[in-house]
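Collaboration report, partner site 2.

Our partner group contributed sequences for two proteins of shared interest, and the home lab folded both. The records are reproduced in the order in which they were received, starting with the first partner submission.
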Amino acid sequence: MIQDDIIHELQFIPEAKLFELYDFIHYFRLGLNAEKVKIDKTMCLESLKKIQQGDLTGFSEIQDINAHIQNLKNEIS
């Protein structure tokens, strides 16, 4: 299995270089996750314009922001 091969190769990478490799893998994975999420730019811009005008109609209130953020993170990963 390819994951086993990757793990085996990690043994031969110097400790100092593992941080760079981790960053590469981490941001590569985040990029893959971002490809799954399609963002409607027009809708986002319209929502921002409404917020700037103080018009919050149509927006739901978030009671627990930390729980909401954690839920969003769970959806992405």
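Second partner submission, folded after the first:
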Amino acid sequence: MYMSTMTTIRISHQTKELLDDLKHHKKESYEDVIGRLATMAYDDEPLSDEEIEDMKASLEDIRAGRVKSLKAVRDELGI
């Protein structure tokens, strides 16, 4: 079996305990746990420019007070 180059890292006992809690099974390696976490950190569906602009417009609406509470919308819809 091919073994890639390895390195050593230092982590606190607190971080080690967090990693222990994230193991899927007792014998799962820290390599697997850290790899899984690192993979989860990447967004495979980044926001489009249009979505970002829509979010900016929504934030401007909120800042300008152009919003309604959920209760107000329910009352308007009669639900």
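Feedback sent to the partner group on the second submission included the following. The chain is about 55% helix and 0% strand. The chain has a mean pLDDT of 93.
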